[in-house]
Amino acid sequence: MKLVAHAIVIDGDDIDTDVLYPGRFLNITTVESMTAHLFEGLDPALRDQLGGDTALVVGSNFGAGSSREHVPQAMRASGIRFLVGRSFARIFSRNAVNLGLPTVVCPAAVTAARAGSALELDLAAGRVTVDGVGFAATPYPPFMLELVEAGGLEGWTRGQLDATTEVV
Asked: CA-to-CA distance for 16 and 14, rounded, in angstroms?
């Protein structure tokens, strides 16, 4: 699975979910409405840079803090296709993948990327390309690829149930 995007670079380490999507908006349940509050505690102007072909390039321990599915849900709904980082908080990364938003650890790609850089992510091969220069990353195992291709755990489960349901 290959994904292509342009980079939005978010500088800094230990950026937590509380600034990515503040708690006062957790009562919002429609994903489309969540997008209006993404990055609210960090830099709301980042929302103006998002589109259907965006990738976030982030520092270390991105997504630390509270377990907020709102963050990857709003990111995906805002057109973010994937994230490349130095490292991710475990629960953030797992929530993101479960919601169909790939995260990839590739410090060399983070160093190379600039705002607007052309990025390509090959999840199966474990390769991140920044402005034509390739960097090795850990490939996604087949099950994780299936999750992302299905749009997340919910879509994957629905597909599994559909495949095993007999028509009577």
From this structure: 6
Beta bridge partners of 105: 85
Backbone φ, ψ for residue 104 (5° rounding)? -135, 130
Any idea what the Cα angle at residue 153 is, between residues 36 and 141, rounded to 5°? 115
The C-alpha angle with vertex 1 and arms to 70 and 93, in degrees rounded to 5, equals 30
Over range 25-51, report the average pLDDT.
Answer: 94
Class (C level, CATH) for 2-164? alpha beta
Task: Give CA 30 to chain center in angstroms.
Answer: 18
DSSP state of 47: G
Q: Where are the beta strands (DSSP E) in 47-146?
A: 54-58, 80-85, 103-105, 118-122, 127-130, 133-136
Q: What is the pLDDT of residues 83-104, one digit of tens each?
A: 999 999 999 999 999 999 999 9
Domain ranges of the chain: 2-164
**Coil, helix or strand at residue 68:** coil
Q: What's the CA gap between 127 and 136, in Å, rounded?
A: 5
